[in-house]
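Q: A small favour: would you put together sequence and structure tokens for a protein?
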Amino acid sequence: MKNKLTSYLSNIKFTFNVVISYFLRKSIVLSKYNIKLKANWIDKTFKFYVFANYGYLFANYIIKSNNVKTFIDIGSNQGLYSILAAKNKNIKKIYAIEPNINTYKYLKENILLNNSGEKIEAINKAISQDFKEVELIFNKTHSGKAMINPNTGKEFNTKNKNNEYLKIESVQKEFFNNLNNYSSIFFKIDVEGYEEKVIDIIFANLENSCISGFFIEFSVYRKETSSIIKKLLNKNFLIKNITNSYDGQFDLLFEKKS
């Protein structure tokens, strides 16, 4: 009973401080994940960061894991998991890849706010199968829904009139080839429907022995979901954890079979 009361009071105090930060227009907000964030109240993903709406399963894993030395955050957004990974003394190098220049600016600021610059290298590029320029579709009010246009050069089939478009350079093949110099590489992949293509690029350019695991966002509505899971199981990875489904989405944590 005492623990519940303590937790309840702590939540009230946190919410009160966030409300004060909002109304006083403070430029820096402390997230429930205990990281500092550049205020970005227009963005839904930022609010998820603040109130820890993504839960703590992967947050706790990446902070404490002994099986990760290199962390590749593909679709890093404003840097939540990269910054948490920087707290792990076992992780020596982090690449935070975010294609949207608007979101990337917040990523860079948040890295500095949390003194994580020594470990994290932020990259403002996309990932594509042919390593060429791609078109990014995004909405300023929900940066987490940005996605690669599968038909770059053609209008994307969407009813959302608030969507905007950006041409983005891609990470080159050499980046993936160079990762073979690292060990115990863990990939977090959140690319809104482009996951299978990213995984194909990874396995086409990296030795499987270098990879320790994956954390991937899935959707029950995407036909590629079962295909991705089968590919990883066939590559000797096991499902270790699964988050609860929300809005048809769920996350899976894969680790290399020992």
Residues 2-23 form the longest helix (22 residues). The mean pLDDT is 89. The chain is about 35% helix and 25% strand. The chain has two domains: 1-30, 43-256.
